[in-house]
Write a structure and sequence with these properties.
Elements (H helix, E strand, L loop, with lengths): L15 E6 L2 H12 L3 E3 L7 E5 L3 H13 L3 E4 L12 E5 L2 E5 L6 H14 L4 H10 L1 H7 L3 H12 L14 H7 L6 E7 L9 H9 L2 E4 L5 H4 L7 E4 L11 E7 L4
Length: 257
């Protein structure tokens, strides 16, 4: 399954961004750029990004063409086909930013999802992120092995874990003082559907946490895409040796499905 676009977080503090247009659509984009610390400039300025919020179709298309001819990446308000990048709906908790995008297809859907997430994410989520950042040296000292460190953090942040991000506990130092070595884990699943939406919650969580994914050749890429991007994927007919460390997922398709 290919991505329609690659989500990126761009630091705009002090950087110029071209904004063209007037009225509320342009003002809404200006407010967003101001929050990000961008320098809002006109069309003639040198910039890598531009937002076109011009109402008149011919005028807007002409501006888009001029900007793209210069190599500027363009966001065209209400014209998704002309967009090189889109601006997502945002949920912000300090340094934690959750961005919801639909590729410009439906701003209303993105806004509805943002409102739902606003009620789910606790106010202390930013403090938890800052606590984990401050504890980086202590984490490296406690878990020198990078994979083991990631598993320990993953276990603490898992649903019901000591630092479950939806529970509001932000005592990173308290957890770290008592944290033990994360146990190795091997999970095997027989999949009955090629649709990733049919994964059980347990299967989805295991894939998201796995260090290595052993899979048969007929397991579809859409399922494997639910694993972390840096998880090692190994195509094989059977799990060769039961590993003694790490989080391992072994996937088999039910050929009768």
């Amino acid at each position: 399954m290919s991505l329609a676009s690659l989500p990126l977080f761009v630091r705009l503090g002090g950087r110029p961004v071209i904004l063209l247009g007037e009225g509320e659509p342009a003002e809404a984009k200006r407010r967003l750029l101001d929050r990000a610390g961008a320098l809002v400039v006109g069309e003639d300025a040198q910039a890598a990004l531009a937002i076109v919020a011009i109402g008149d179709e011919d005028e807007a298309q002409a501006a888009i063409a001029r900007l793209k001819a210069r190599g500027v990446l363009v966001n065209a308000v209400d014209r998704p086909a002309a967009c090189d990048f889109t601006l997502p709906a945002i949920v912000e908790r300090g340094p934690v930013i959750v961005a919801i995008g639909t590729g410009g297809v439906s701003a209303g859907l993105a806004a509805a999802l943002r409102q739902r997430l606003e009620t789910l994410l606790p106010a202390g989520l930013g403090a938890l992120a800052e606590g984990l950042y401050a504890a980086r040296s202590a984490l490296r000292a406690r878990f020198p092995d990078g994979a083991e460190r990631r598993r320990a953090i993953g276990a603490a942040l898992s649903p019901g874990g000591v630092l479950d991000p939806l529970a509001g506990d932000t005592d990173v130092d308290g957890w770290l003082s008592q944290a033990g070595r994360p146990a190795a884990k091997v999970e095997a699943f027989v999949l009955t559907s090629t649709d990733p939406d049919d994964l059980t919650l347990r299967q989805a969580r295991a894939l998201a946490a796995a260090d290595r994914v052993y899979h048969r050749a007929d397991v579809p890429p859409a399922i494997l895409d639910r694993a972390r991007a840096d998880a090692v994927r190994i195509e094989c007919d059977a799990l060769p040796v039961e590993p003694d460390d790490g989080q391992i997922v072994d996937l088999t398709m039910d050929r009768r499905a």
